[in-house]
Design a protein that fits this description.
67% helix; 5 helices; single chain; mainly alpha
Amino acid sequence: MDQLPIWFLIASLFLPRVSLVIAYFADILHPYSLNGWVPPALAVIIPRVLVIILIFQDRGLSPWLLAHGIAMAAVYATAGSQSK
């Protein structure tokens, strides 16, 4: 199985939806066994979870998985705060 390219791993830290769309059209996501309606729903609602699932399927427990997990926690922790 081909590994996820480095550009996808870096870009999905900052722009997960855009990275998923580019990877879809570049046919990078084809070897992963995500079927049915779940991947498109995750890509629209919570794309970071889909990216983490893809990284886990590709690389297992790796530093990339930890980095994306921290980014996801940081984004969701600050999403509810209001600026003054």
